[in-house]
């Protein structure tokens, strides 16, 4: 998608329409705003158009925004939304991490979660194929599809896009958040398979834990996971520990950077395959030390032990940066802005107020 007709050229941006699925989510809403700021026309999809209108209509450039009701579970639901679009950002996904059923759990997950997730992704891709105008699809994957462990269970020194979590291992071990991991692995696999069969140019971006400020009315799950050592959330903290166990650290990216990377990959003619988008990583003790600097009432001392002291594997974003992408925010910025936004939105108590009450 390079050259004079590339959407990155100023003359083309004004006449380029793109589609964003899952537009009321954390990444989706920020991506819609970023695209409008750059001059693109945007078709935003959501199951709840009222919620979407309330959130997205406040953005600058909203005269170039159209909102469509679409549901991953409804075949043909995305046809109108992708019609006339040059590119589609498929961000929408289920955020189920675990299941509560105890019997026939594999059958339940397959029939109720993974199969509908795959079908939903194929619904979007089939709409793109029928539209005829779509030249590229950017699929939002997840760092949950990546592992630092090799076939022998040893830690790799370098983790890249080829370090894929084996699907059979997820089924067999069922780590914390395994349902989400499985869903992401299967949907991405089927998406690439379908795109290859239909001659659609599909690129996958692999976000780690995405954090920073947010536009949504509720605190995004990824931000809650990042701050779970502060909040002590019994459901989300184990997921943070599971990420650390699988990768040797917690990789991070700022919300603005991950959205800029989505757009960058749409605009780059040389973008092929999968791209990890992580600015850096912190071990659990490093992460909690940074959190305690931004939120002084939180003590990181109890996290100093119980985590490996070895040098963690390097989680590489070289495929992305070698194309020319540049990160704007570092790990410290991400932590600082996440804490500040959560205090502002009353998810975390103001440290001064908390100190007075204590």
From TrEMBL:
Gene3D superfamilies reported for this sequence: NAD(P)-binding Rossmann-like Domain
Pfam family of the protein (one): Epimerase
Record's keyword terms, sorted: Oxidoreductase
One GO MF term attached to the UniProt entry: oxidoreductase activity, acting on the CH-OH group of donors, NAD or NADP as acceptor
Record-annotated NAD-dependent epimerase/dehydratase domain positions: 18-273
Annotated InterPro entries: Epimerase_deHydtase, NAD(P)-bd_dom_sf, NAD(P)_dehydrat-like
PANTHER family the UniProt entry points to: NAD DEPENDENT EPIMERASE/DEHYDRATASE, NAD(P)-BINDING ROSSMANN-FOLD SUPERFAMILY PROTEIN
Name of protein: Anthocyanidin reductase
Organism: Phoenix dactylifera
Gene responsible for this protein: LOC103703553
């Amino acid at each position: 998608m390079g050259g004079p007709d590339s959407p990155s050229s100023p003359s083309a941006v004004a006449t380029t329409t793109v589609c964003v699925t899952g537009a009321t989510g954390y990444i989706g809403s920020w991506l819609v705003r970023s695209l409008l700021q750059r001059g693109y026309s945007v078709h935003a999809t959501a199951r709840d158009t009222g919620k979407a209108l309330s959130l997205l209509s406040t953005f600058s450039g909203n005269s170039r925004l159209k909102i469509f009701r679409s549901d991953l579970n409804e075949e043909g639901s995305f046809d109108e939304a992708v019609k006339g679009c040059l590119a589609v950002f498929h961000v929408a996904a289920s955020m189920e991490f675990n299941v509560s059923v105890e019997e026939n759990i594999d059958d339940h997950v397959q029939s109720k979660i993974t199969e509908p997730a795959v079908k939903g992704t194929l619904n979007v891709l089939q709409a793109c194929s029928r539209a005829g105008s779509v030249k590229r699809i950017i699929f939002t994957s997840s760092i949950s599809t990546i592992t630092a462990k090799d076939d022998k269970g040893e830690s790799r020194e370098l983790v890249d896009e080829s370090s894929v979590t084996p699907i059979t291992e997820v089924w067999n071990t069922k780590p914390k958040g395994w349902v989400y991991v499985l869903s992401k692995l299967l949907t991405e696999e089927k998406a690439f398979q379908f795109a290859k069969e239909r001659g659609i140019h599909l690129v996958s971006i692999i976000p780690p834990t995405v954090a920073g400020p947010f536009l949504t009315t509720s605190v995004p799950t990824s931000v809650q996971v990042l701050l779970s050592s502060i909040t002590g959330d019994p459901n989300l903290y184990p997921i943070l520990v599971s990420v650390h166990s699988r990768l040797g650290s917690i990789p991070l990216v700022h919300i603005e950077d991950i959205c800029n990377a989505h757009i960058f990959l749409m605009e780059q003619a040389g973008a092929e395959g999968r791209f990890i988008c992580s600015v850096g990583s912190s071990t659990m003790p490093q992460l909690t030390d940074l959190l305690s600097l931004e939120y002084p009432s939180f003590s990181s001392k109890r996290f100093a032990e119980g985590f490996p002291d070895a040098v963690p594997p390097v989680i590489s974003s070289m495929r992305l940066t070698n194309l020319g992408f540049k990160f704007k925010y570092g790990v410290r910025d991400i932590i600082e802005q996440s804490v500040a936004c959560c205090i502002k939105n009353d998810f975390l108590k103001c440290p001064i107020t908390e100190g007075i009450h204590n």
